[in-house]
Amino acid sequence: MFSPDCTSVLTSSVDGTATIWSAAAGDCVRSLHGHEDEVLSAVFSPDGALALTASVDETARLWHAACGVCIRSLEGHEDV
Question: For a Cys-Cys bond, which of 1, 22, 28, 57 suits 36, CB 3.0-4.6 Å?
């Protein structure tokens, strides 16, 4: 998923992380750690300030994209 300004790419992984990459250089900018199982989905907010991830661990997490801090964990979704 590209950020709204197309400078970053957000990917999800089976290792339980999501990663924000530099679209221009291809370098890892930051990894988002906190899920306990594979991350199936990752998207940026319309302004690119936040990232949302969803995992097999039945949580969704909201992150500050600029610093990688999880600001909210949403628990209880089922049937991934």
Answer: 57
Residue 73 forms beta bridges with which residues?
61
pLDDT digits (tens, 9 = 90+) for 41-68: 999 999 999 999 999 999 999 999 999 9
Over the range 11-33, which residues count as b (16 or more CB within 10 Å of their CB) and which as e?
Answer: ebeeebbbbbbeeeeeeebbebe
Q: Which of 6, 30, 2, 4 is nearest to 17 (CA)?
A: 30
- pLDDT band at 10, cuts 50/70/90? very high
